[in-house]
Amino acid sequence: MAEIIQRDGTWAFDGSTIRITPGLHRSVPLFRQTYGEIAVPLKAVSGVVLEPERRRGRLRLRLREGTDPLLQATGGRLPDAADPYRLAVDVDRTGVAEYVAEEIRRALLLDQIPTEPVKAYLLPGPPVPVSVRSSDGTVSFDGTRVRIDWADASERVKRAPVRASSTWVTWSRSSGCRTPATSTASCASSPARRCSRNCRRRRTRTPWTCGAAPAATC
Predict the structure, then answer these.
(1) Which of 84, 100, 145, 207 has its CA 20 to 30 A from that of 138?
(2) What is the pLDDT of residues 96-113, one digit of tens each?
(3) Distances from the Cα of 128 to the Cαs of 47, 68, 167, 170, in angstroms?
(4) What's this model's pTM, rounded to 2 decimal places?
(5) pLDDT per residue over 183-212, tens digit each?
(6) Closest by alpha carbon to 59, among 83, 39, 81, 87?
(7) Does residue 46 share a domain with residue 81?
(8) 211: in domain
(9) Where does the DUF4429 domain lie (predicted)?
């Protein structure tokens, strides 16, 4: 067992799984604390590096492309501090961090884990349902549908041509955009832009079905 415990969190490697537990210190971003513990199978890892800095180092786990739905959904836009596969390491613990990294590298070599992208997820992704609330309203996701419940004082509701308390957006693997009343409608040359415009204009209770790329925009 190779383990490093820091204020930022804990990494423990038992030879087949890297168990990452976020720290409870106030400096740990709320996103990581909410996301919780992650058990990363060795076959999902492409490498691990220790990045030295002046005051502290960073232990960073690199995953094979396509293994984690969280990284695919965020598209690399997570801030470093919110990255669950990054651990801030105090200067006096860099030796332990290097030992953990070396144990992971040796296991990758012995098990001959490839670095090529995978065809299916190897990690479960964030648990659902999940919701977040702001002054504009509440956004919730149940694994299939994103629901937006607008607050009465929301500027978006005030500007909308049809006042409504909620908006539903459902996505599928089909390309383009369509409403329940029609078959697939062409989104012309820019489906993401077209879908985004439609979703902004129609604040009704009618579900919209969008392709994968437009759904991310909506």
Answers:
(1) 84
(2) 999 999 999 999 999 999
(3) 29, 15, 19, 15
(4) 0.68
(5) 333 333 344 434 444 444 344 444 433 433
(6) 87
(7) yes
(8) yes
(9) 11-105
